[in-house]
Amino acid sequence: MSDTLYYKSASELAALLEKKEISAVELIQSIINRTKAVDERVGAFNSFDEVDAIAQAGASDARRSDGQSLGPLDGIPIGIKDVLAVTGQPLTCSSKMLEKFVSPYDATCIEKLKASGAVLWGRLNMDEFAMGSSTENSATKVCSNPWNLDHVPGGSSGGSAAAVAAGEAIVSLGSDTGGSIRQPASHCGVVGLKPTYGRVSRYGLAAFASSLDQVGPMGRSVTDVAMVLQAISGHDDRDSTSFKSEVADYVKALSDNAGKKWTLGLPKEYFDTASDAASMEPVLKAIEFYKSIGCEVKEVSLPHTEYAVATYYIVATAEASSNLARYDGVRYTHRAENYDDHIDLYFQSRAEGFGSEVKRRIMLGTYVLSSGYYDAYYLKAQKVRTLIRNDFMKAYEEVDALIAPTSPQPAFKKGEKTSDPLSMYLSDIYTISANLAGIPAMSIPCGFSADGLPIGLQILGKPFMEEELLSVGHAFEQAHDFTNQHPKL
Ligand code: GLN
Q1: Does 134 sit in the ligand 1 pocket, CB within 6 Å?
Q2: What was the pLDDT predicted at 187?
Q3: 446 lies in some domain
Q4: Pairwise CA distance, residues 367 & 94, whole Å
């Protein structure tokens, strides 16, 4: 049985583990074998530790036979984006800057996963410091889209999406600052959820833009994503921006909300000509589906959408320039061998350690924060950010959730946008507003392009109402069969 386990869902596997029809060791072995068979082509993993993963799975089996199972995730392999701290494991952010760094502590979400018994599996490839939309900015290795190896998997959590799509992990964690969970999920045909800002602790997540960053789950089904979200959510004293409120039972909500007739909004600015027509088709069909099950679907307007990309690239770069100042060549980072004095040590180490996109962001961010430009750019962007959030709050007075495309086009070819950063930035046009507004949003598979590349449907929800968001997605998933369609590798 073990050779077919890697494409089963976490919920199915939880039942098999519970009935002792399979063991956690058998399951991780199936994942290890699969990873070894395909990852040379996919490039989803920066590294993995097979011995450690088998030991974790062995401990899970021992707990279960003692009647001490920690719950449904006990024994389920979860891939971790290489941006989250796991004690004793490398944390590289796919950067030369952190090439040799080993984390001395666990991120809170990792602590919580350990407490739920999940088997932490490997370090997943990403754009350097999560800056990018294609994983081509990784300093570690190339990551490919499992559906077509000539195409990018999306980014920055490209490894997290590709690993799940290729059966190299059952579920995974990514991070989303401007779409980095949803866009790669869409490009790789998996489910990816960015929680409300404050739903999941950011403690132990290497910071990119602290007011936008959120950790979130990816999986092959909405239920699997709900299971992981359940495990990682909640307040944390070590992250003062994490929210003090009860965490709903996300999995139970899926059945409680089954058959609900939601009122759904179509933000008209997301259905303009920026999208290529063929990739809009499955999204339009999904809208028809919701109507057919009795949901009310109405057009709404988010009038400040056109400013979102510009606003994001001011706020995110400003915060990045400050956050990345810590990588100075003195402590835990790459250190230049040749330098004149301590100032030159900073210069040389940063010049050698950072890739060109990271440098571009630091320069842009430093510029928009510099005296004389702060008011003109940064302060103004903060004001526009409030207008963008207000647009959503106004729309939510009328609707339960919004539905839209996740990305204006399917996964593009490798190299297609690398020489033109602006066109790369524009591929985030539908995802970044959710980060600016702090609202939860999810991408689910809804179809394929003519050449067989997955297309995602984005569902955007009310703050801290992930249970509704998941339920809206679940209704679509239940009536379609994208969960069981896999790339041919
Ligand atoms: N693609 C966006 C960027 O490059 C978003 C990245 C992210 O969400 N981490 O900034």
Answers
A1: no
A2: 98
A3: no
A4: 25
What is the structure's pLDDT at 28?
Answer: 98
**Residue to mutate (ligand 1; options 94, 125, 127; most atoms within 8 A of CB):** 127
* Any atom of ligand 1 within 6 Å of the Cβ of 180: yes
Which residue type does 186 have?
Answer: S
Does residue 144 lie in a domain region?
yes
Structural domain for 12, as ranges: 5-263
Structure confidence at residue 3 (pLDDT): 58
| Gap from CA of 365 to ligand 1 centroid (Å) | 14
Closest-CA residue to 164 (of 100, 101, 228): 228
| CATH code of residue 220 | 3.90.1300.10
| Distance between Cα 213 and ligand 1 center (Å) | 9
Show the low-confidence residues of the chain (pLDDT under 50): none
Q: How buried is residue 3: exposed, middle or buried, by Cβ count under 10 Å (0-12/13-18/19+)? A: exposed
Distance 167 CA to ligand 1 centre (A): 25
Report pTM.
0.97
How confident is the model at residue 7, as a pLDDT?
97
Q: Which amino acids are annotated catalytic? A: 81, 156, 180
**CB 440 near ligand 1, within 6 Å:** no
Task: Check pocket membership of 475 for ligand 1, CB cut-off 6 A.
Answer: no
The pLDDT value recorded for residue 273 is: 66
Question: Rounded to the nearest 5 degrees, what angle is found at the Cα of 210, between the Cα atoms of 205 and 213?
Answer: 65
* pLDDT value, residue 468: 98
Could you read off the pLDDT of 340-381 as tens digits, one per residue?
999 999 999 999 999 999 999 999 999 999 988 989 999 999
In angstroms, the CA 483 to CA 489 distance is 17
User: d(Cα 94, Cα 81) in Å, to the nearest integer?
Assistant: 10
In a domain, 28, yes or no: yes
368 part of a folded domain: no
